[in-house]
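Chapter summary example: a protein plus 3-amino-D-alanine.
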Amino acid sequence: MKIGIVGVTGMVGRVMVDLLKCRNFPIEKLYLSASEKSIGKEFIHNNKKYKIIRIRELFSKKPNIVLFSSGSDVSKKWAPQFAKIGTTVIDNSSAWRMDPKKKLIVPEINASSLSKDDKIIANPNCSTIQLVMILYPLHIEYGIDRVIVSTYQSVTGTGKKALNQMNKEKDGFFSYKKIYPYPIYQNVLPHCDVFVKNGYTMEEIKLIKETKKIINDNNIAITATAVRVPVIGGHSESVNITFKKKPNIDHIYKIFLKKKGIIVQDNPKKNIYPMPLFSHGKDEVFVGRIRKDYSCLNSLNLWIVADNLRKGSATNAIQIAELLIKKKYI
Ligand code: 2RA
């Protein structure tokens, strides 16, 4: 396969290169592209040097698959052009996620909806992926009525510059580029992505809309509060779920234990629960603190954590590519 990555110098782009290598992805040629300021620079990975090329040059190579991890504008401009020449685009931006004609894929959930005609496939937002991973198997079993989710999102979700802001604040510097409107070090911001007119943030809207699209059920009521916390990597979420049927906690453990991609870490007596610090470099979604919500009929609470750069972004995108190859759609 001839593979391209657009946005390779970003945090997700770098993880994509790592994962393609360590998952033994069938690569005949790997082309790396990034924004204008990186063109011509060397990108070194595993002692191998790659020259960063313009997207136009990548286009001329007619790759089989391109993983996009630049902004929405780049995806909107280039994805249709690649699709036209037969390249399959897996796009990590929000450009196509809510387009009714494009599939929004988490392989463990809706892989069967893909066909060989899907040439632009959307990768969901990081906070949505980990949420649907645990909601979907429970929805199949008990039917979900309502979800209340509060996120605790790490700064790598915003990118390198945000990490730089936190590090500078930690080291006591006063002059640095502010990505967040307030300090993030020693602080918590109830603010991920931009605010929209109804008082919610885009991150919250994404959580609500993308979850319904992936699970393919518009009747699930979802509300969200997305919060940025001074954590380097790994997003955490507190999730309250109300079901149509009475949930059985032991049965829910069994459901999660059987599910590929989910790891249960839940033993309060031994202080075992998922934490972002221990999610780094892992591809699974970790779930714990599973307990009844005694305040509400048929409800429970749980806590989930995943590496936002892995299952939240790069891993999910590469799993989609692997699936397409397995199904011989590419
Ligand atoms: C975040 N939505 O803000 C992101 C990353 N995709 O964490």
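Key point: The mean pLDDT is 97.
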